[in-house]
Design goal:
It contains four helices and no strands. By secondary structure, it is an all-alpha fold.
Length: 74
């Protein structure tokens, strides 16, 4: 389940906090439409690995999802 996957990622991040682990957890959260939590993980990953351009791409995509979600609610 998605919840179990998030829990496993969280446990792994307690042992070794990495940008890749945060990215994986963020993608799972995004699939669950937990956009704010996903963005928090992506920004933390970017802080750990500021030169990772792939993270910028994921952040931009997630921001577009957030904007679409907010527009839909209005």
């Amino acid at each position: 389940s998605y919840e179990a996957a998030i829990d496993y990622c969280t446990q792994a991040l307690y042992i070794h906090n990495t940008a890749d682990g945060l990215l994986l957890r963020s993608r799972i959260k995004r699939d669950q439409k937990l956009y704010d939590d996903a963005l928090t993980d992506l920004l933390a990953a970017k802080n750990l690995d500021p030169t990772n351009n792939d993270l910028d791409r994921y952040i931009n995509r997630l921001n577009a999802d957030l904007q679409h979600c907010h527009e839909t609610l209005l």
